[in-house]
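Hi,

Apologies if this is the wrong queue. I'm a grad student, and the batch job for Dolichyl-diphosphooligosaccharide--protein glycosyltransferase subunit WBP1 from Candida orthopsilosis produced an output file that my downstream script rejects. I'm not sure whether the problem is my script or the file. Here is the sequence I used:
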Amino acid sequence: MFLMSRLNTRHEPFSDENVEYVSTIFFQLTCTHRKSYLIMLSFIYISFAFFLSAIAHASTVSSKDFALVMYDPTLIPLNDSSASLSPEVKQLLTFLNTHYDTTLSQYSDDEVSLFYDDFPRFDHLVLLPSSKKAIGAKSGLNQHQLLKFINEGGNIFAVGGSEASLPEGIRIFLNEVGIYPAPKGYKYIDHFNSKNGVVELKGDNLISNNRIVENLNTIEYTNGNAALISNNELIQPIIKATKTGYTNKVGQVMSDESTWTFAEQGYLAVGFQALNNARLVWVGSIDLLADDSLYKWCFQDTGVIKLQFVQHIKANEPENLNPHLYRIKDQAIYTIGVSEYKDGKWIPFQVKNEDEQLQLSFKMLDPYQRLNLSPLGPVSSTENSSELDAYAYFVNFTVPDHHGMFTFELDYKRNGLSYILDKKVVTVRHLANDEFKRSWDISNSWLYIASTVLVIFAWFSFVVSYLYIGKPNYVKKNI
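Support response: The file is valid. Your script probably expects a header line. Output copied below for reference.
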């Protein structure tokens, strides 16, 4: 405005002095705006750098899984740093603090919640014994929330006991899964496998072909109880009671009313793996925490396998990966790569016995073919990599003589291992008109072709013989 008013007050033409003055004013304004622009750009750049740094820091902080430990301070005083804890509990806490971002909370805390806006706040949940049936956060830690936690992929490790038990909501959740622990006041007893009145668990208590706990050292099972289990196929028994063991109410004579489990119908450690590979482990005593393989399996540190790649091709077109269209009686080759998570890294997963073989089902509604996959050997799951992190398996088979929509289905479920499920749908077409065999290529047609040739040859022979062979002499004879 100052510049325009100054220019408008003069009616004479611009002189050199006016031009120089106006140029100076414009140069000063341009420099001022340029400095402001550079300052603004610098501020934006610094803010963006801080933003990226915050994101990197957040990703570093959240690289660990989150674990929640629920406890009763009257039984296990985790809130008191000066209190002495059992070696088994110390071992568990050391493992949790080393591998996860661990939160300790009491059962009486009424603000405990497993979810925030329907998203899980924790990846793992540890439920230690409690002296009370009720808990403070009834809406945040009940059977419905625990079931939702499992459905969202969370893992739960529950610990029972004879002198203390789990709260009522947790017991109801275990019952829904198919695990029925003995109530408070019931104790597992085995007079034939006891030393100084304390039950000893040995290798005979392990379930055979068990991948969760492969070896069981002698463990003193004090103040422990047992559980009954349902016929749920997702339940995986780990440690069983002996033929001479039983669970009876403390202080009462053994009878039908006071006995919870008898002989091998009782289980001291039970696992459960949902279809989404979320895991649950229940143990009947804190003493079983001495074997870290139980909670390592529960927290997905062991027994985890995954598919690294899945491919299927036509034998005559190996360059065409995963075609969507097959023709009846085509030769198909199906190949997969499987890895196992062990010691913090992925290694090749090798099937060691026939009972654990991988199988492919080529199915429409029902499997038309069910085939065992043959091993190829260790391979790399990524191109141009020398790290052998997967084991390859394959099968070569003939596509059925039936057109329609078929599925390559790999459904692998074995106790102690995470489940693998992969489905790939393809179309199988019939032969086109110009793809059918013709004449001599069909063996059944040989008889008809030969018959036709013989008829033609016989007719030709007859005509020749009729016209040229045995022609009578028509010369008149004089008698």
